[in-house]
Amino acid sequence: MANTALADPDAGLTQAQLAARYGLRVAGERPSLAEYTRRLWAYRHFIAAYSNAKLVASFSNARLGQLWQVLTPLTNAAVYYLIFGLVLEQKSIPNFIAYLTTGLFIFNFTQTAAQNGTQSITGNLGLIRALHFPRACLPLAAMLTQFQQLIASLVVLVGIVLVTGEPLSVEWLLLIPVVLLQALFNAGLTMAVARMGSKVADLKQVMPFLLRTWMYGSGVLYSVALFEQNLPGWATRIVEANPMLVYIELARHALLEGAPLLNSSMLQAWSYAVGWAVVMGVGGFIYFWRGEQEYGRG
Amino acid sequence: MVEHIEASNDVTVTLPRIVERIPTVVVDDAHVIYRVHQGAAAGTSPVAALKRIVSRTSAPNVREVHAVKGVSFTAYRGEAIGLIGSNGSGKSTLLRAIAGLLPVNRGAVYTQGQPSLLGVNAALLNDLPGERNVMLGCLAMGMQPADVARLTPEIIEFSGINERGDFASLPMRTYSSGMAARLRFSIAAAKKHDVLLIDEALATGDKGFRKRSEQRVRELREGAGTVFLVSHQLSSVRDTCERTIWLESGVLRMDGPTDEVLRAYEDFSNNKK
Fold it and tell me: In chain A, what is the straight-line distance between the N-terminal and C-terminal CA atoms, in Å?
């Protein structure tokens, strides 16, 4: 043989030693957190395009198309107006309709983001097994799709709030940091539930109950004053720290004049809002990154 | 193992231009196990499920499929390697493990750079037009938006989906299965690759498209360091690969020059009948 004279320098090496000698890397090795973040940033166009595409695709079979983006929250508000505004008229809260719809729309953002996030790995296994990209793109795109929905809902909400007689004020601008903080919180949440959902498929079945419990604990449908009246003091303190209650309260405080609030000071509410956004955003990201290699297995 | 080393040496003889053999893919005793959830199979009534939770036994509807069982080999720069075997022998799974898309349970796969899997199953969004899917697919492969805009018309042209009217602007759910597969292949083939893994892609589409795609794969091969080709069409393995690996039930059965392996494989499949 021609190359026996070459005296193969690799003879006798194990496969692992051979790989090390030529500087080969383990296939699909998890990158460091900094490297992963950098790659994710490089894929920002994909995240944006994918979330847009999902949004368009979700309406593509409907005849009215993307008009539903506005029609859905509008119809929702109309139903709640019928029940809580006309049938069961609430007297304890001034401008109950605006109070209710603010809570509903803000909560809905987190609710649907978490629901879609649970399936963002399992529902995209074909894509994951075919192409290489940071998997965090998928839950982030799911969150971003819902964020775009929220923007449409907020336009409807502003209309409702104005029609129901709230004055336009500078405080409305506070709504912007509120939803941005909530988006950061939701990003972490969707990444966390995406990893859990990829391991335990049953989470998809449990999620609606968890989310409904969370909704009742966030004072969406009734006055938050009820917590203080019916719960012992320590339990009220816990409810005060509930991130969803905090984001809803801040949104109500920004838009409405006389809405009842549970958090005693706005400073406390804002610190909870920032704290939750940072803890959940960073924590969810790290938790998701630690499972990066496993997502293809399904 | 001995057989394997001899086989690789033979390959070097046939390719005299390669002086030093640089490994690009090293697979070391790789095992891949799938967990399959069987959903509503027998014995999954609510009562049975409750009983299992109480008695803490694991669910019978999770089955493990040991798809690749301890495969080892080394691939070198400049090689084109065919992967053959019966259906379900673990060929596609092995390719996914090399691509790093599916983690190995035991053993290890080492690669140089990032291998790319050129498959026709890059499922995107069926509710969206072909053009949008081309854009999404390219971005998912890590291209920059400017390159995507430049390449999109070329990709659509290559796929030939516009040969019968303007299909690129119609949702992909309106495509025939052949058209969809052609478009997916065209998207995947639009990128340059270091280590290229091709999974049955050459069998896509009608005759005209097959010719174009074989040409494209040849171009990609010339640029890539190492090419793996999974195929049931032994003729295309014979045409493109000088070395062939034969997998059977997840075990490496033979690794050597294409002629020898194909002969043994044909004997094996004929005897089975």
Answer: 47
> From the list B26, B108, B136, which residue is nearest A49 (CB)?
B136
Q: How far apart, in Å, are the Cα atoms of B152 and each of B133, B138, B147, B168?
A: 10, 9, 8, 10
Residue A294 CA neighbour count, 13 Å, CB half: 13
Q: Does residue A13 sit at the B interface (CB-CB below 8 Å)? A: no
Cβ contact B229:B240 at 8 Å: yes
A24 to B140: CB separation less than 8 angstroms, yes or no: no
**Side chain identity, residue A22:** Y
Q: What domains does chain B contain, in order, with CATH numbers?
A: 2-115+193-272 (3.40.50.300)
From A42, A129, A201, residue closest to B101, measured CB to CB? A129
* Best A24, A38, A138, A205 residue to mutate vs chain B (most B CBs within 10 Å): A24
Other C-beta atoms lying within 10 Å of the C-beta of residue A113: 28
Ranges assigned E (strand) in chain A: 25-26
Total residue length of chain B: 273
In chain A, where the domains are located? 31-293
Residues 74-133 of B with CB under 8 A from A: 74, 96-103, 108-112, 114-117, 119, 121-125, 127-128, 132
pLDDT band at residue B2 under the 50/70/90 scheme: very low
B93 to each of B98, B101, B113, B129, B250, how far by Cα in Å? 9, 9, 20, 30, 9
Q: What is the pLDDT of residue B44?
A: 58
Per residue in A217-236, pLDDT tens? 898 888 888 888 888 888 88
CA distance A74 to A112: 17
How does pLDDT run across B75-86, given as a tens digit for each residue?
Answer: 888 888 999 988
What is the CB neighbour count within 10 angstroms for residue A273? 22
Q: Give the containing element (helix H, strand E) for B13.
A: helix B2-14
